[in-house]
Amino acid sequence: MMIEKVEYKGRWWLPEKPDNKISGILTFTSEEGAILDLDGVLENARGVKQMTDPEIILGETNDGIVTIYKCIAQSLGGGTYGDRSSYHSDIIFVGIHFHKTEDVKFNSISIHYSHLDEWLNITGFHGLSFIGPDPTLKYSQPEPIKVIINENYILYFSVSIHKSSTYLGPKKIAIEEDAYITIESQGAKSFEAFREVMGDIENFLSLGVMKPVYPLVIYGKATDSKNTINIFYSLWCTPEQHKALAPFDMLFTYKDISNKFENILKLWFEKANILKSAHLLYFSTLYNSKQYLDYNFLSYVFALESYHRTTDSNSELPQQEHNKRLEQIFTVVPAEHKEWLKKRLAYSNEPSFRKRLNDIYDKSIQVIENFINYRNVFIQKVIDTRNYLVHHDMGLKDNTAKGQSLVRLTLGLKLLLEVCLLIEIGFDPDQINTLFSKYSRYRFYKENRILSLNEKIND
To answer: What is the pLDDT of residues 255-298, one digit of tens each?
Structure first.
């Protein structure tokens, strides 16, 4: 489990120096990553004892062989029995030895995510039957859902059955199902390449469940190993204990999109790189919802601006017409000011922030007008608040949103961005309205006009 602490006691060495094995303890938590405390100092290939940042440290323990990946030297010091040293890493592989960085490749990686069970909601249990003298529990393994996302990767959504490790007593047994997503590559690929795909999957699921999604169990398969390789890596944001979600607690589930699941996923991965900045800003806010409200507001503002830059026209006039306009201006400007003015006007053909917001509002209007009234008031308040926070223009201080006004404004921007993200992966306005009406939080916003603004926005 990614959220639990694991500890491995054994001997550790550098791949190029297998005869210099040092006793030590490797401790891993998802919050801090891996810490290796050694009862000595590792030697390099020339036999020199020194603290470096080795790409790989290998280990053999009572619980199996271990590879510590991309290590950072932390400390070197004396102890009761001689020198001691410690190293930090974000990633460990249990069940395999990778001797070189270029060897760290996988053919497939499987992940059990938080909330994936409820989101996928597929089971092979068919009920307990008491007909006849012997009660029977019927179970048949569901077929995996296969999605070819591009020429490099195939995803499999599946459930696996296992006996619970929790002891319930001599007369009780618990059988559980866990949902997994398996990423299968066309040819072995680096762990970093798999991490990118995993990140896009986590973002997709997080948008669906409207909560941060974290890997709980990760294991992989490599070409040169028949063993299942357990993978642990640190999480940049510590997960909270999660509780099961009902369908109305999620924006969309697999059932909601099953009829066009493959097309939606393909578009998500296709657009992930194009909309990288917008995704980064949106999901960093989702994963850090307790940040300052000003920060969340600006994150959505910048995400929407980035989204417009990559999906819409980024110029007000055709370039030839704009160049002609600039030439006319430069002909009447004194020579000593011409270079300065050219730099100032370098981005003068870009749409204003107001135009970007209006374009996005137009794209989302069939959905967003159900939540936000007084469009012009909303957009003006966003612009004034943004300009005050970014430029600290004191002349705008009285016009900015504060308190509950800022909360409503921020929620409005969040909804705008979510509508845009859903449109990009193939949802039409009617489908988005259906999802928003099903999702309990947004249904509450709509019914109670939580995001309503009026001509006099008060705190």
So the answer is: 999 999 999 999 999 999 999 999 999 999 999 877 889 999 99
Pairwise CA distance, residues 135 & 131, whole Å: 7
Query: CA-CA distance, 122 to 204, in Å (whole number)?
Result: 18
- Contact criterion met (CB below 8 Å) for 219 and 407: no
Distance, CA of 86 to CA of 103 (rounded, Å) = 24
121 closest CA partner among 219, 209, 220, 242: 209
The H-assigned helical ranges of 275-352 are 276-287, 293-311, 319-330, 335-344
User: Which residues are within 8 A (CB) of 37 and not within 5 positions of it... i.e. 6 or more apart?
Assistant: 24, 25, 27, 84, 86
CA atoms within a 13 Å half-sphere pointing along the CA-CB vector of 325: 11
Query: Quick one: DSSP state of residue 259?
Result: G
pLDDT tens-digit readout, 330-372: 777 788 877 887 777 766 667 889 999 999 999 999 999 999 8
Would you state the pLDDT for residue 352? 87
Nearest to 451 by CA among 399, 416, 400: 416
**Residues 6+ away with beta carbon under 8 Å from 115:** 205, 209, 211, 213, 242, 245, 250
C-alpha span between 164 and 247 (Å, rounded): 25
User: How far apart are the C-alpha atoms of 24 and 7, rounded to whole Å?
Assistant: 11
Q: Which residues are registered as beta bridge partners of 128?
A: 137
Collapse the DSSP code of 383 into the 3-class scheme (helix H, G, I; strand E, B; otherwise coil) and give the result.
helix
By CB atoms closer than 10 A (0-12, 13-18, 19+), residue 232 is buried
| Spans in the chain with pLDDT lower than 50 | 1, 79-81, 455-459
For the entire predicted model, the pTM comes to 0.88
**Block residue for tokens 């618990």:** 174
Beta bridge partners of 113: 215
Q: Which neighbouring-strand residues pair with 78? A: 83
For residue 200, the model assigns a pLDDT of: 97
Output the CA–CA distances (angstroms, integers) from residue 425 to 264, 265, 267, 275, 294, in the order listed.
5, 8, 5, 11, 29
Domain map (residue ranges) of the chain: 6-100, 104-270, 276-314+351-447
Per-residue pLDDT, 163:
60
Q: Give the pLDDT of residue 138.
A: 79
